[in-house]
Amino acid sequence: MEIDCIFCSIYAGEIPTEFLYRDDKCFVIRDINPVAQIHLLIIPTNHIEYMNDSPDRVNVVVHDLFSAAILVSESEGISESGYRLVINQKEDSGQEIRHLHMHLLGGESLGPIG
Ligand code: AMP
Ligand code: ZN
Hints:
Elements: H1 6-11, E1 21-22, E2 26-30, E3 38-44, H2 55-75, E4 83-86, E5 102-106
């Protein structure tokens, strides 16, 4: 747990948030500022800041993040209509929160990237 990290605080229960999925490896919440009809954040419980700094740890969590994406795409009813997964890294991507996380977007036609 990293002090002053909003995602670590959410997982620790310090910020009341609805969990769509939660286990000891990762958890899923709704984005507070959605850019699509369905906009979820899939977040590893371990605080990993940037993928490039911790390749070994990322290799372990990527399985958990994608497994959670499959589960919540089904529980949200968009496994057939489709969805987009996005991970922002560092400045050029506009990454706001320095705790690795994957966006899951769907529930509507998303159009081309960019
Ligand atoms: P990124 O730009 O990839 O770092 O994405 C961070 C995302 O976290 C943004 O889409 C924010 O809207 C979202 N966010 C920030 N604070 C919260 C929060 N307390 N609960 C849910 N989502 C949040
Ligand atoms: Zn964190």
